[in-house]
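Hello forum,

I keep getting stuck at the same step: I have a sequence, I want structure tokens, and every attempt I make locally crashes halfway through. Rather than fight my setup again tonight, could one of you with a working pipeline run this one for me? It's a single chain of 322 residues.
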Amino acid sequence: MARNASYVAPKYGECSLGHAYEAFRLRCQAQNLSSGTCSWYDMTVRCWHRFLEAQDVTKAKEVTPTVIRAYLEDMRNRKLASGYMCRTYGGLRCFFGFLARERLIPQNPFELVEKPRMEKKLIRPLSMDQVRALLAGLDQKLFPNHTVWTVMVLILDTGLRISEVIGLGNDQIDFQAGVLRVMGKGGKERQVPFGTTSKQALVNYMARRGEVPDQGLFFVNRYGGKLCRIWVQQTLRFLGRRIGIKGVRVSPHTLRHTFAINYVKNGGDAFSLQRILGHSSLDMVKIYVSLADQDVATMYRKFSPMDRLGIVPGAKRRVLVH
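Reply #2:
Ran it on my machine without issues. Output:
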């Protein structure tokens, strides 16, 4: 979208798509939303506007429930994930809700369109064997690989989001206390502990990186600049393919899931996990607990003491249980 030096409010009912988004962008900035959130809104609205232009829709008031449903159908035909569709629906509904409150359109057309149903897929974490293979698969003689390896260790030990890792400042790491000060979603700061393995990995990385002039970030690229999130994601994906990991998406977020599930398996409780991950509610944490419980049930069936006993003394006959 074009960035107007001086914003001029459009007349009621004559709001173009460009003016509509410019007004919404100013609202996001006024709310002090994160740069990541603003970028996501920008990308979402750009894709939406390309679709509307193909439909000869040029003004915000011309968007109808039928047009919205046609866009949802277009996304479905392009085989986009249901989660992406739901997030897009929510973002655009927020956008048009703002336009309605500002009286730039008569009403929010998204109120008449049902939210797409999101498929519930099981979270597939990495096994510990897969984790070992990933960590062993990087040649750390190269500084970029050493960076990715350290990032992997940190996420697997703390469950940080990749955006939180990339934004981690030198002054946010307390090596003595073993605690990170992390700025999470919504500008909420929290403290996240890290273990001795991560501490050693961070110290080794810091020693190799050395002092980087005018750089407050801990993780840097080979040129001393900010680490690119997409580059990290692509590196992990290519690494997973190279070492032959199948059935699990190798990504920073999968590492976060792997941490959470193994934290519960190892005896961690849901409330401390919620604080570590930075979730505002226990809903997501309950999923991790459920998955960990399923794993415990699987292990029990494998190692049940009585099942492994063999013939049970006193048992007269075997009963087939359906």
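The longest helix spans residues 283-303. If your local run keeps crashing, start a new thread with the error log.
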